Amino acid sequence: MNMEKLHKLSLNTRNLYPENKESPIHFLHDTNTPTHLKFIRNHFSYPYPPETNISIFISGHVQKSILFTLADICKYPIRTVHCVLECAGNKRSFFRPKVYGEQWENGAISQGKWSGVSLRDLLLCTGINRNANEVVFKGRDKGVKKKRVVHFERSLPIKKALHKDTIVAFKYNGKPISYKAGGPIRLIVPQWYGMASVKWLSEITVIKNKFNGQFQSEDYMYYPLPPNHANVKPVTSINVNSIIQSPINYATLSSSKHLIKGIAWTGEGVVKSVRVSVDEGQTWQTAYLNKSTNTESYTWVQWSLLWHFKRKGHYVILVQAEDSYGRFQPESALWNRKGYGYNEITKAFINIE
Question: Where in the numbering of this chain does the Moybdenum cofactor oxidoreductase dimerisation domain appear (predicted)?
Fold first, then answer.
């Protein structure tokens, strides 16, 4: 898409305080989402920008605590990760029965190239004690939850924190990360939902126990219905999913050939196949996967199917993606009280006249 058309697009506002906005995902066909069209997800108001040197402090169950300035971080080998970033509540508005929370449709997702340094390199510098279990990340954003002031904090298992592609990022698509996108320094955790990629990163603490912060053990948990603590589990890797970008839902089209297209992605492995039905699931056709848009394991893949709609009337288009681990979009999403991880078979309703 050329720049003139991109500048005509805008974000769809879900909330102003805190600011939450969706990307116009149906009209984004490039492999990188421009900064001004990247979705915005906040839990609190924006923190004040740092007035002094930008830095992060690493402490806890380490051999030595170190304050890393941005200049220090930039001395380490630069690593670029091209990945999908999706809010865990993306598509929440489609759950039935409805659930409370930001009523995201399809646009709480974006993709781009994040550059920074492997968190592993910084932790190897501080040294990690042998019985370390998790790494806690603290953002500078804070607000009131349950009558107390809390920062946005999340933890990762030590194995995930030490993965080479878990990075402390300071650039997005080759430019400094914007303030609204969590800059100047933020965490990026490929293949996990966006809550793991803590913005406005200020502190990193290695711990030997389990972290039980507000956004770790209360929010971002799958709570089934009826409440059953035995079935409660944390939100982690992204579910296999897809979006129909064209035709637009409830579009009216002429009786002729039309290109059905969209994107598919997953948090485990890669998307292996996408199949499409135009007769409400009675028959399925295999879509073409544009592998050039999925050259790295963390990115979405563009898919398409040319179909001749000969008969006038109403159609329901169904799309089901499957990944290399055998996970596929279910006929019914796993309902949960907070509305996370919706990945039901994707639908679009169209009229042919």
Answer: 235-343
